[in-house]
Amino acid sequence: MSIEMLSILSLLPIIAVALFLVVLRWPASRAMPVCYFVAIGLALLVWKVPGVRVAAASVNGLVIAGKLLYIIFGAILLLNTLQESGGLRAIRKGFTDITPDRRIQVIIIAWLFGSLMEAVAGFGTPAAICVPLLVGLGFPPMAAVVSGMIIQSTPVSFGAAGTPILVGVNDGLSSGQAVHDYASQIGWSQWTDFLGMIGAKVALLHAIAGVLIPLIVVCFLTRYFGKNKSFREGLAVWKFALFASLAMIIPYVIVAHTLGPEFPSLFGSLIGLAIVTTAARKGFLMPPKEELWEFDKKENWDPEWTGKIEISVDDKNDKTMSLIKAWLPYLFVALLLFLTRLKALPFAEWVSWKVMLPKLFGTDIAPSFKPLYLPGTIFIVVSIITLFLHKINWASYRRAWVSSVKTTLAASIALIFTVPMVQVFINSDGGAAGYVKMPIALAEGVAALAGSAWPIFSPFIGGIGAFVAGSNTISNMMFSLFQFDVGQRIGVDPTWIVALQAVGGAAGNMICVHNVVAASAVVGLLGKEGLVIRMTLLPFVYYSLLVGAVGYSIVWFSEYGLFNLGTVIAVLIAVAAVAIIRYGTKRKL
Length: 589
What we know:
The chain is mostly helical. It is 72% helix and 1% strand. It contains 26 helices and two strands. It has helices spanning 3-23, 28-46, 51-85, 87-98, 102-120, 125-136, 141-150, 159-174, 177-185, 191-210, 213-225, 231-235, 238-258, 264-281, 323-341, 347-350, 375-389, 394-426, 438-450, 454-469, 472-489, 494-507, 513-522, 529-555, 557-560, 565-584, and strands at residues 355-356, 368-369. Strands 1-2 form a two-stranded antiparallel sheet. α2 runs parallel beside α18 and α6 (125-136) packs parallel to α23. The longest helix has 35 residues, at 51-85. The radius of gyration is 23 Å and the shape is globular. The mean pLDDT is 87.
């Protein structure tokens, strides 16, 4: 079978997801079982993958889904614990004291605090923490989920102490002898230094596209969830949004070039938080009081914005709580995540106990999980600490547990089909037909069509990998070596192509199906996952297209000069952004 036909067939599961979830707007609990059987049909009938391998992949998917549900449960439990204790009300008041303006709040919480959570934990943790926190502050659940998903881009490549680079790109490239030979030829005798060089390129590309992410989040907030449905109201705070992005991105890039892939998102977010919150308290670039922006009254919200979880910000708990005490649970979460993920400390070894099912059904698939390492465990531990720290009565704490269990069970149907579908898709090699796995077949087909224009398409392949796999790390594992080979074939610096892969894989988290399902589940927004993806698709395209254009301009600069196709596309995007900011602040959009 031709590579073009294999590529088209490999695209069918993704088309099925787009059709049922995004176009027809089926709930994930209904759409994903259909998509799962599409993937199984292709694996068994076309790729001729043995049934035991399909079964093993499905079981592995169930294990991963269980891990996601465990994280979801822990995040919801911590939120409900804070609601019962009155901590949410104190946190809300703390942000109101800085500013009641929702545009500024979403920048601080989603962009800066979310980047910090991505830095210390990754793997969906930012959405699990920031999305319910935004809802607890009075945001519509849909607005919170969309905001939480859009920021899942710039910090992701260096999340969980650099895992997408140090594990994803590393595992993807290390098996290729041609990569090691190339690294030595260009003067990188140490493999870790070679990975660090790729990480520095990733950071630079992220910085170029990421500078507009806070402004995009704010504009989406005012346009789709505001009373006046206006982009202009979001653009009105463009100076503060750009200031907040630069406060994070500048140290982020510097750290990537000096300390390596473990710390860019961590130091960038911490420094950014310190600078931006201090500036906001002093009124720097803040909107005038008469122009403060707030959501419309709750009774006027679109029914699609709300979920099944009611988070009361005006609870009946009349205890007065200090802001520091209210924030302590989240500080404990950040501290425990950091301590258990920094390999230089003994805690990382203590929580490394792994449960594994080796060679499941006689295949090379080995489901595993580390129960003490999962963020869900940390959320539960901190919830128990909060029980005593905030002096919650047992009846209230029991109510928090019961509510959390019910919400998690509601999310389980979608995830137990979504993740197995992904695992069948990416474990479709080893069949009697002799074809490469579906993701590689899809990428090879695109590469054959793209030719020298491949750098523009490279981030989209990374994004598709994250879309189906739910992870920048897995996307990098699947495609890094392939991207490197394509770079060498078209005669350009292959490390830039790998960097484009890593950035695209990070951007793909914005539209990743099971990340959207997980983020939606935390606030009870089940059945509306397709609408979330429809809204985050445009930011994903912007991000991938811009970095692809910049990458094209860089790798072909020596042959085509500065004014090449990539430069033209990047300049057009920049001009459009400037024009929108300039004229959008003067007229209603």
